[in-house]
Structures are given as structure tokens and as C-alpha cells.
């Protein structure tokens, strides 16, 4: 079985304040989900909590760029480190957000990994909104949680879109968007960029299971992929406890089937869950429903026959993003130092993920993510805020 490791990322830095004197409640989501027995039911390892910086918009005004940008950037780098350490252990990370800005940390971790193994990592973006606002299609930006998909595909200010000089974290052709509403504000921008989408009507017509398989097929040239799930993909009739509920979403049963299909492969490297706000769930009923869905949806990961993450051989090199798709920046960050890729194609079977040793033999190679982040050579002694 693949051992799941649950990491709390309770950041709310990417959301607008609900009122002038309050802060978003989604930072409470990991605790609310844990209170309903999530870790025990998943038989997961507790990978701890990465505490975010203080939420304080200060004197931010439209036109100032993304609010909390320095804090989000630093938090994303630290989150990428934590996710990388989990994957290096041969475990399956389940990241509990927080708002959708956690995607920047996950994306950075995936880019490091792709560089380390000489391949590209894809993204399955399950969300009720495209989160594709950026300087090229909006009068101003301000909330990373409403701009996360744009940022991780290289659109926006470099302190967020090019952390460590990496840009984009995911290529447009390596992104699959599922569950947006049929009239999403940026649907035509996604189409123009070549980002593959399946809105709710098409998802329903094909079914959740077939949609998961279709998503796999879109990412056949990727070495692996990451899954982002914003619970506002659910219809507000069943899940109103989110920052921006929008009618026309899917049901819990559909999300369960979709999740199970997406993770039922060793090429799925991890999942993040975002935007649940316990402030709108006073009796805990929605938290309980989320936990039920996640436990059932992740059942294939913990099944006896499941194996640790396995990366496919790298597919053909994708064409560089077009200038029309990504706005140039006047002062781009320097390129990262080169990291040597493994001498052979990476498709390992890792050690027993139930072993409670230190890091043991890394199933993706000795500390590949750490080396991609730091440039260190392997040790031969080792055994192995949304502002509308």
C-alpha cells in the first residue's frame, strides 16, 4: 500500500477579507477535518503543519499587485520543501489548505521534481472557477487565490510566478481543468492558451469515472501529475461553506468517483484540498461530508496492491509558451542552477512505505527534490486573498 502523509497548510493569505475587520476562515479547515477523524480513517502519517505568516492586508490598494505577495512567496517555497520531503519518502502527500494559493507551493515542488528526473509534471485542476485572472486579462490583480492557475502557468508578477527563477511551473499543455462552470469568466482565455478543460456539463455528460480516465489521457506525455481540488467545485446546495459559492457544481458522489479515478495510478503524485471555510459550518456537517468523500476517494491509494509513486519516462519536449500567452516581465529572475538528471529513466518501485524509518531509500532517487532545490549532490553513504 502507499502510505498517505497529511500536511496542513492553513494559509488564508490569498483571499480577500470577508469584512473590513475579519479574516477568512479557511485557515481553520485542516483542524476541522482532523476533528472528524480524517487521519485515523486514512491510516495516514501526520506530516505536521506549516504555519503561515500573519494575515494583514495593511494599506494594499488595487494596482499594488498581489496582496501578501512576499509572504506567499516565502510560504510557497517552504511548502514545496515539505511536499518534496514527503514524496522523497515514497509517500502520497495530502495537503490540507487553506486557500488556493497553496497551489504555488505544490507547483514549485512539482517543477523541482520534473527538473530532477528530466521530465514534465502535469496538473489536474478540479475547481469551480478557473482562477485565471492575470494582468493580461484583468484591470488589476490582488488575490492569489483567484489567480493561482494563471500564476502557476507563468502569468503574473515574478515573485510569485517565477519563484527560484522557475517559470512556468506547469506548461499550458500539461494542465487539465475540470469542474469549472459553463460560463466561467475566463473560459475563452483558457481555450486560447491551449489549456484543456471539461466544464461541469461535459463532466456530467461523460461521467466522473470516464472524465478521470480522460484526464489521464491528456497528460500521457507527462512523467506524473498533481491534483488540486477546490471544494467550491461542489454545488452550493451541498457545499455552501466556501469563499465564493457558485451554482451549477457537482455532487459529493461525483467528486468521490472523480477523485478515486484520478489517484488510482502510481503516476498521481499527490492531492491538495482547498477553500473549505469552517466559519460557515457551525455544526460540522459539511466537514464530516468532506471527510467521508476524501476517505472514499483516496481508497485506491491505501489499497493493499497500491505502489509508491512512479514516474513515467519523459515525453517529447513541449514547445515554448507563446509570447501572446505569457506576458514578458522587464526584469526576469535568473535561471536556476542546472541539476543533473538521473542517468536512467526513472520508474522505480520504492521501499515499503509503511516503514517508520528516517527517509530510507528514496523511491525517486536519493533526495531528488532536495537536490533540485539545493543543487546538492547525492550522498554516496546513503542507502539509497480573491478581490472582485
Describe the structure.
- With about 400 residues, the chain is an alpha/beta fold.
- Residues about 315-365 and about 375-388 have low confidence and may be disordered.
- The chain has 13 helices and 8 strands.
- The chain has helices spanning about 30-35, 40, 70-90, 100-115, 150, 160, 185-195, 200-205, 210-220, 250-265, 285-295, 300, 370-375; strands spanning about 5-10, 45-50, 90-95, 120-125, 175-180, 195-200, 225-230, 270-275.
- Helix 7 (about 185-195) links the parallel strand 5 and strand 6 (about 195-200).
- Helices cover about 30% and strands about 10% of the residues.
- Helix 3 packs across helix 4 (about 100-115) and helix 4 packs across helix 13.
Distance N to C terminus? 44 Å
Using the alpha-carbon principal axes, give the shape. globular
The count of strands amounts to 8
Number of helices: 13
Largest sheet: 8 strands, parallel
Strands of the widest sheet, in order across it, are 2-1-3-8-7-4-5-6
Q: Which stretches of 5+ consecutive residues score pLDDT under 50?
A: 317-363, 376-388
Query: What is the ordering of alpha helices and beta strands?
Result: EHHEHEHEHHEHEHHEHEHHH
Structural class given helices, strands, pairing?
A: alpha/beta
**Average pLDDT across residues?**
86
Tell me roughly what share of residues is in helical segments.
Answer: 25-40%
Radius of gyration (Å): 19 Å
Amount of beta strand: 5-15%
Amino acid at each position: 500500500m502507499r502510505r498517505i502523509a497529511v500536511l496542513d497548510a492553513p494559509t488564508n493569505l490569498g483571499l480577500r477579507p470577508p469584512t473590513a475587520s475579519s479574516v477568512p476562515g479557511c485557515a481553520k479547515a485542516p483542524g476541522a477535518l482532523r476533528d472528524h477523524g480524517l487521519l485515523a480513517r486514512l491510516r495516514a502519517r501526520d506530516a505536521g503543519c506549516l504555519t503561515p505568516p500573519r494575515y494583514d492586508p495593511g494599506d494594499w490598494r488595487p494596482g499594488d499587485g498581489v496582496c501578501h505577495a512576499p509572504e506567499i512567496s516565502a510560504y510557497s517555497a517552504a511548502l514545496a520543501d515539505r511536499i518534496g520531503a514527503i514524496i522523497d519518502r515514497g509517500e502520497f502527500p495530502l495537503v490540507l489548505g487553506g486557500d488556493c494559493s497553496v497551489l504555488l507551493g505544490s507547483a514549485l515542488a512539482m517543477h523541482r521534481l520534473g527538473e530532477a528526473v528530466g521530465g514534465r509534471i502535469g496538473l489536474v485542476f478540479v475547481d469551480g472557477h478557473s482562477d485565471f485572472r492575470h494582468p493580461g486579462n484583468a484591470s488589476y490583480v490582488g488575490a492569489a487565490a483567484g489567480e493561482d492557475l494563471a500564476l502557476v502557468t507563468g502569468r503574473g508578477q515574478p515573485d510569485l510566478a517565477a519563484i527560484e527563477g522557475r517559470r512556468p511551473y506547469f506548461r499550458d499543455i500539461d494542465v487539465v481543468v475540470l469542474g469549472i462552470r459553463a460560463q466561467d469568466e475566463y473560459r475563452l482565455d483558457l481555450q486560447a492558451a491551449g489549456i484543456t478543460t471539461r466544464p461541469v456539463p461535459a463532466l456530467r455528460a461523460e461521467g466522473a469515472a470516464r472524465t478521470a480516465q480522460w484526464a489521464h489521457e491528456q497528460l500521457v506525455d507527462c512523467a506524473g501529475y498533481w491534483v488540486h481540488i477546490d471544494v467550491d467545485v461542489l454545488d452550493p446546495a451541498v457545499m455552501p461553506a466556501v469563499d465564493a459559492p457558485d451554482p451549477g457544481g457537482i455532487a459529493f458522489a461525483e467528486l468521490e468517483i472523480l477523485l478515486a479515478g484520478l489517484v488510482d495510478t502510481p503516476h498521481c503524485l499527490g492531492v491538495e484540498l482547498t477553500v473549505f471555510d469552517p466559519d460557515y459550518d457551525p455544526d460540522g456537517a459539511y466537514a464530516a461530508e468532506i471527510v467521508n468523500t476524501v476517505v472514499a476517494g483516496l481508497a485506491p491509494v491505501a489499497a493493499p496492491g497500491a505502489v509508491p509513486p512512479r514516474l513515467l519516462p519523459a515525453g517529447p519536449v513541449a514547445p515554448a509558451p507563446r509570447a501572446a500567452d505569457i506576458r514578458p516581465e522587464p526584469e526576469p529572475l535568473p535561471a536556476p542552477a542546472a541539476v543533473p538528471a538521473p542517468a536512467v529513466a526513472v520508474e522505480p518501485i520504492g521501499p515499503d512505505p509503511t516503514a517508520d524509518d528516517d527517509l530510507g531509500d528514496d523511491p525517486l532517487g536519493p533526495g531528488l527534490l532536495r537536490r533540485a532545490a539545493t543543487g546538492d549532490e547525492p550522498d554516496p553513504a546513503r542507502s539509497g486573498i480573491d478581490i472582485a
